Every structure is written in structure tokens, then in C-alpha cells.
């Protein structure tokens, strides 16, 4: 089992913790990680783009001129695509880009992402993360004590003081153990996680 240091909020080492190899020590599968990231980005797409085709554009009901004898090319409507103000050919319409991947693949990808952070020594375990009040300055101090800036902070339970303290800090995102995903783990340079959150993740994914 991988052994990592446990820090307090002042940045001092107060012990160590052995991470479960079935979650934090698996063989990294880059292909599954890629699948999970592409899946999440696709599911986040709104798909609300909408353009009018010739049947949806207002007007153009009358034939602009007679079929023959004018010297002009024949035209049936001033709302055909070649006219200014006409409809768009193959106009994009609202659509759903989301799709699902195998649940086992998603779990394996998450474990691979967590393992890669452990291998790169970019995971920091805190004994606890608690504030008596909402204070962004205190949250920044904790990160400075750990010498990290762009970080995903994973907490074991929803603590309003912690979440709101981190809300205005640039390049920082807080997440609960049941909301973590591969994209966020890879997006942020470091993962700061509480000891309680580690135990919960191991309980669910081991």
C-alpha cells in the first residue's frame, strides 16, 4: 500500500496514512481515462444551438418572378438559402449530445486518475478541514501552508463554511466524495483531500 503524509491546516506533518491499493494503487489505464473525460465533456454540452432553415424563415411565399422569359435564373422563393435573409442549409437544431459509458469503466477510470495523482505525489491528505466562520483568507492560508495553488479540494461531508470560503479562490474547486470525477482530478494540479474523505472513497470504490 502507498503511504502518504497527513498534514494539519498549518502545513505540518502530523502522521501518515496507508492508501488502499485497490483504489489508489491500480494500474493506470489511459484509454479508460480518456473515455471518461470525453464522455463528461459531451454530457456537459447544452446542444441548444438553433438556426432557421428555409421552412422556418418568415416570408418568401410568392414566386419573385415568372419561370421563363426574364433572363434571370428561375427562383421559387426569396427565402431560399442563396438569397440574403434566406434559410440556412442543413441548419443545426437542438440536440442531446449526452451518452453513457459502462459503470465499471467509469469506476476504473476514476481509480486510474486517483492513482496517477498518488504516483505524481500531487495528493495532500489533511487530518481535518474546518472553519468556525466563512473566511476566504483562512482557506488561502491553508493552501499556502501546503504550498499548492490550483487544487481540487475533496471533503468528506458538506461543510458550508469550507465550501463558501473556497468559492472566491481562483483555480480552486471543492467537491464531495460522491461528486468527484475524472475530469476535475486531472484538471487541477493538486488534490487536497481530508482523511475522512479518503476513508469514504475507499469504502465506496474498494
Give descriptors for this structure.
7 helices, Ribosomal Protein L4, Chain: A, single chain, Ribosomal_uL4_dom_sf, 6-stranded mixed sheet, rRNA-binding, RNA-binding, Large ribosomal subunit protein uL4, 34% helix
CATH superfamily: Ribosomal protein L4/L1
CATH class equals Alpha Beta
- Overall pLDDT confidence: 93
Fraction of residues in β-strands? 15-25%
Oligomer: single chain
CATH architecture: 3-Layer(aba) Sandwich
- What pattern of helices and strands is seen along the backbone? EEHHHEHEHEHEH
Helix count from the secondary structure assignment: 7
Molecular shape: elongated
GO cellular component, one term: ribosome
Protein name: Large ribosomal subunit protein uL4
Family: Belongs to the universal ribosomal protein uL4 family.
GO biological process, one term: translation
